[in-house]
Design brief:
Length: 788
């Protein structure tokens, strides 16, 4: 054999179950795994080549495939209604896996070119094969006259062998043996032997049928004798052992009546099937699932509230409202231990604030098994409800899989990233979750694979999400929303001292007392290197410091390290953020707003300038959304109609106003920037600077009213972390201040406003105290047309 340079050396590996692709074969394959579907689609759009190989055993692992496979050409792709992908492929060339690449889905191959030996030397063998196949066609209807015509036209020995073997009903390991036979002479012998065996079995079966028709008593022959010709001696006894083992497991397992009846029914079907059939393999898997699911197994709840409080306080800093809700649940469970329908709690907050780990702490506190299901990116309804058993490679959904892994029917299951569910032609997973999360329905949840009712009412489901608006309304209606806001700088420092530093020292193999952080260094680390609402970046930076110290420790520097501000700069480089330099001085036309994002609150600057232009008009830049553009138009219209300014229309006709929001690559949208935009415009027109120590948020109307906004906690926290002392909030948002932490409220000055007059009095930098001077007093002595 010679290396074949016709094909690329690197290809996508598509593992197949119970299917061997031989060169010269054309067949349809159904693909259900998401990763394989992506690889096939990518290959079809590229060069259409893939490498196919079968699993060596029932363990479907990428490293458990045969090293010898077939380079195949994708001829056609067709999506099926059940979510699978039907592909038609043609086998082209034998190849061997040389290396698995880093992704494990890409392999480096050695592709082989068949050297056809001299035809005269193989003519006899070729004719014998064709003769045997013609004789076999008398007993097998699958060998049609058309197939014999095609066979007669093939004269190359290697192609003839592959074509014959591919169309015989052989076992998987027999076809794989033929695929691994590179030498053509050996393949001819293998094909000859296989045909002879098939012919002998067919003749024997034909003889048995003839004897039965003549009335020969059944005891004179054993139907399983034919297995000897297929290398299957002892099949009857081994199958009996398997059936008896399943029967013993069924009798020992405590099963509901419905499940017991179904298990016995399927076992009876398995007993009548051939041991090597694909359906018998499916039934074995089904019975295994039924017998491994904990139908009546549950764990006793630990309802000690003091113990739960201790565990929650140990694992999490603050989160008072969340902990209180968990303790309430345990208290009710203590008073009413039976028939209590589990609540569906949903923690909503920025990434890294401890939503998922809080679920794990709840499981620990209650003494329950903990399971986590990641819902991010799931688009297939079958991922929740399971695949029907009629499909190849079917299996239960993620809910039943989690129950099986937990080995109890009352675990704590965290449904992570519930706001990131998708949907497409394969169904809507969020709709499938409605039954799972509805206490009125989930006592009889039916997975498509099991097709049996399972009681989920004992399961404590906890969902997590970053954005509540992205949760479908029907699903959100079944959830008890508990918001979790971000952490202040002081809280981050405390969390680092109590949890993160010790954990990272252990993770990096350093002694517990080897590193000591000073209070000043932690403050510098939090303010200069992290700015998000959660703790992930802070954890990464502490881990980075520990790794650098660990390297010195291994090199021989075993002295204890005290981490100060200067050492942090040396290890991590210059700080990434400089909050104190956001606005060095008060300027005309520049206002500081507060924005809400999925990762917490942020500071947002609005800048406005005027440019002489006979056409006038308004320019908006900074990748603004439609709602924010409308807010800017509303702010400009209000300023134009503001009677206190006494501006002539000529001012707007001869000056073009340009409003810009820095960070042009970041999309910005929402109505809460209305107050900030109006303040920037009024400052520009009056030529009066806006206070640099003040941030604001609020929606505006054309009549100058200030309307309430959302995300107040996150916005206030962002202002606090940036060192801003004064915040303008809509009057109707006063109720939201009760959720602000005392440490923050005591530091900030909240200015509650109901109209833009009050906003302008608070924002414009004037010499007299605001409370003693109206906006009219401020403006009455100015000629703004001259200022412009």
């Amino acid at each position: 054999m010679k290396l074949n340079k016709r094909f690329p050396k690197k290809m996508s590996l598509i593992p197949l179950k119970d299917t061997i692709v031989l060169p010269q074969s054309i067949l349809s394959v159904y693909i259900s795994q998401e990763k394989s579907k992506e690889l096939i689609t990518s290959a079809f759009n590229n060069n259409k080549f893939i490498f196919t190989s079968a699993y060596e055993s029932s363990e479907e692992n990428i490293n458990n495939v045969y090293k010898v496979g077939c380079i195949s050409l994708i001829m056609r792709i067709k999506p099926m209604e059940d979510g699978r992908l039907k592909i038609m492929i043609q086998g082209l060339c034998r190849a061997t896996i040389k290396n698995f690449l880093k992704t494990s889905s890409q392999v480096e191959l050695d592709c082989f070119l068949e050297e056809q030996e001299d035809l005269p030397n193989k003519k006899t063998e070729i004719n014998e094969l064709k003769k045997d196949l013609k004789e076999l066609s008398q007993f097998k209807e699958s060998i049609s006259p058309e197939f014999l015509i095609v066979i007669n036209s093939i004269e190359t020995p290697g192609h003839l062998c592959d074509f014959i073997l591919n169309n015989l009903d052989l076992k998987t390991h027999e076809v794989q043996k033929a695929l691994e036979t590179f030498d053509i002479s050996e393949r001819l012998k293998l094909t000859k032997k296989t045909l002879s065996t098939e012919l002998e079995i067919s003749k024997l079966q034909d003889r048995i049928q003839s004897l039965l028709k003549k009335g020969l008593p059944k005891p004179l022959f054993n139907p399983y004798d034919s297995q000897k010709y297929q290398g299957g001696g002892g099949v009857n006894s081994s199958k009996k052992e398997e059936v008896n083992e399943f029967l013993s497991r069924i009798e020992k397992k405590n099963l509901p009546e419905e499940v017991l009846t179904e298990a016995r029914k399927q076992l009876s079907r398995l007993e009548k099937m051939h041991a090597e059939s694909s359906e018998s393999s499916m039934l074995r898997n089904y019975l295994d699932w039924i017998l491994e699911i904990p139908w009546f197994d549950y764990s006793e709840d630990n309802l000690d509230l003091k113990n739960a409080q201790t565990i929650l306080d140990k694992d999490h800093f603050e989160l008072k409202k969340s902990k209180e809700r968990i303790l309430e649940f345990l208290a009710v469970r203590t008073l009413k231990p039976k028939n209590l329908k589990g609540p569906i709690i949903c923690f909503v907050g920025p990434p890294g604030v401890g939503k998922t780990s809080l679920g794990k702490s709840i499981a620990t506190a209650m003494g329950r098994s903990y399971q986590r299901i990641s819902l991010g990116g799931i688009k297939d309804e079958a991922e929740i409800r399971g695949h029907r058993r009629t499909y190849v490679g079917s299996m239960p959904g993620k809910i039943i899989q989690a129950i099986k892994s937990a080995q109890t029917n009352n675990p704590v299951i965290v449904l992570d990233e519930i706001d990131k569910l998708g949907n497409d032609f394969r169904g809507d997973p969020s709709s499938a979750l409605l039954e799972v999360l509805d206490p009125e329905q989930n006592h009889a949840f039916k997975d498509h694979y099991l097709n049996l009712n399972f009681d989920l009412s004992k399961v404590l489901f906890i969902a997590t999400a970053n954005l509540i608006d992205n949760i479908p309304p029907a699903l959100r209606d079944r959830l008890e929303i508990i918001p979790i806001s971000g952490y202040t700088q002081t809280e981050k420092i405390e969390i680092a001292k109590k949890y993160l530093i010790e954990k990272e020292l252990e993770s990096n193999g350093l002694p517990k007392d080897h590193i000591q952080f000073t209070q000043e260094s932690l403050k510098h680390l939090v303010s200069g290197y992290t700015q998000e609402a959660g703790l992930r970046n802070l954890k990464r930076e502490i881990s980075s410091i520990c790794r650098k110290i660990a390297k010195d420790y291994v090199l021989g520097d075993k002295e204890k390290q005290t981490i100060d501000k200067n050492l942090i700069v040396k290890l991590l480089g210059s700080p990434y953020f400089y909050p104190e330099e956001l606005l060095k001085e008060s300027k005309v036309g520049i206002a500081t707003g507060l924005a809400w994002t999925s990762v917490g609150g942020q500071i947002l600057h609005v800048e406005a300038i005027k440019v002489k232009n006979k056409k006038g008009g308004l320019i908006l830049t900074g990748k603004l959304g439609e709602v924010m553009k409308e807010s800017a138009q509303a702010a400009l219209s209000y300023v134009k109609s503001y009677t206190e300014l006494n501006l002539s229309s000529e001012w707007f006709e001869t000056n073009e106003i340009h409003v810009h929001l820095p960070g042009g690559a970041i999309p910005k949208d929402g109505p809460s920037a209305g107050v900030t935009l109006a303040s920037s415009l009024i400052s520009l027109i009056t030529n009066i600077p806006i206070r640099k120590d003040l941030a604001m948020t609020g929606e505006i109307t054309l009549s100058g009213r200030v309307l309430p906004v959302g995300g107040v906690k996150e916005k206030v926290l962002a202002a606090f972390n940036h060192g801003i002392k004064n915040i303008i909030l809509p009057k109707q948002n006063e109720k939201d201040l009760k959720d602000i932490k005392k440490e923050v409220k005591d530091t900030l000055n909240f200015i509650l406003v109901s109209n833009l007059d009050e906003v302008f009095k608070a924002t414009l930098l004037i010499s007299k105290p605001v409370e003693k001077q109206s906006i009219k007093d401020l403006l009455e002595n100015k000629n703004f047309n001259d200022v412009a």
